[in-house]
């Protein structure tokens, strides 16, 4: 394995070891990454046993996006150790792809067999409403950037676990599924771009999740992705897009998505 490939994984392993030392927990079986507007829903988990500033761990930097915290919390619920990442790094922050997936690689290195990735997104599918959570069935990458380097050919047929989606839908049959398009940002899409993305087959569009899902899948974890529709995509309503609107929609949906997070604790 070349240094180019191994160094990011070594950094993730170091951060995972630091988490184990701080929490006194040898491993965490499950991880959640909470996107914009999702943080309020974490109250469903109660008080964490430990709260760790990301910037104090190897390879992490302070989040620069409003609505994203900069810490990791450790919980023990029903004899299961869980990590919750309050915040993430995005491609548009200019820190490189390894920084974008460092949290996910750390979670899997810390023992996570199930990786839950959440985000706020624009809804393209006209059947979706603001405040609706949608399970990601598949994705379209519009960035041309992958966290996988070298001749490491990873099958992405089943990035988003059909087994886990089926379990979640058994708890809530009303959950919709859709295809998520990863837009590089930080500008929102134009109406013409949204029409193009819709023609390509996407139901949702956002600026995160896809690199993390690929990285976790490549490391052998089961991935489930959930988008919260916080606004109609560009050109599909009369309103202009804003990050404040995204945060407000997340807060308004906290109870609904909190129940969804609670159901995720039941998956195995």
Short description:
The chain has seven helices and nine strands, in the order αββββαββαβαβαβαα. By secondary structure, the chain is an alpha/beta fold.
Could you characterize the architecture of this molecule?
The longest helix is centred in the N-terminal third of the chain and has 21 residues, at 3-23. The protein has helices at residues 3-23, 97-109, 162-171, 191-200, 210-218, 243-252, 254-264; strands at residues 30-34, 50-53, 71-77, 80-86, 114-123, 133-141, 176-182, 204-206, 222-232. A five-stranded mixed barrel has the order 5-8-7-6-9, surrounded by six helices. The radius of gyration is 17 Å and the shape is globular. It is α/β, with parallel strands linked by helices. 31% of the residues lie in helices and 24% in strands. It contains seven helices and nine strands.
The N- and C-terminal alpha carbons lie at a distance of 32 Å
Order of strands in the sheet with most strands: 5-8-7-6-9
Radius of gyration: 17 Å
**Would you identify the regions where 5 or more consecutive residues have pLDDT less than 50?**
none
Shape: globular
Task: Find the structural class using helix and strand composition.
Answer: alpha/beta
Helix fraction?
25-40%
Question: What is the element string, with H for helices and E for strands?
Answer: HEEEEHEEHEHEHEHH
Portion in strands: 15-25%
Discrete helix count = 7
Tally of strands: 9
């Amino acid at each position: 394995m070349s240094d180019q490939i191994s160094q990011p994984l070594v950094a993730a392993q170091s951060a995972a070891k630091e988490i184990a030392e701080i929490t006194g927990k040898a491993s965490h079986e499950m991880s959640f990454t909470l996107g914009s507007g999702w943080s309020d829903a974490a109250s469903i988990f109660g008080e964490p046993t430990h709260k760790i500033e990301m910037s104090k761990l190897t390879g992490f930097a302070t989040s620069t996006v409003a609505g994203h915290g900069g810490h990791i919390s450790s919980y023990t619920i029903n004899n299961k150790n869980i990590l919750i990442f309050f915040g993430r790094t995005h491609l548009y922050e200019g820190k490189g792809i390894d920084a974008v997936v460092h949290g996910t690689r750390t979670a899997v290195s810390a023992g996570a067999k199930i990786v839950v990735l959440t985000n706020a997104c624009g809804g393209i599918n006209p059947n979706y409403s603001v405040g609706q959570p949608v399970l990601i069935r598949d994705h379209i990458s519009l960035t041309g950037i992958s966290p996988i380097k070298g001749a490491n050919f990873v099958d992405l047929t089943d990035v988003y676990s059909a087994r886990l989606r089926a379990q979640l839908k058994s708890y809530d049959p009303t959950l919709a599924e859709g295809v998520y398009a990863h837009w590089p940002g930080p500008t929102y899409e134009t109406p013409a771009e949204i029409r193009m993305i819709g023609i390509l087959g996407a139901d949702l569009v956002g600026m995160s999740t896809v690199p993390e899902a690929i990285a976790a899948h490549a490391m052998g974890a089961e991935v489930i992705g959930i988008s919260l529709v916080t606004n109609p995509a560009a050109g599909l309503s009369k309103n202009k897009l804003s990050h404040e609107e995204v945060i407000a929609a997340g807060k308004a949906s906290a109870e609904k998505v909190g129940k969804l997070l609670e159901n995720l604790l039941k998956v195995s």
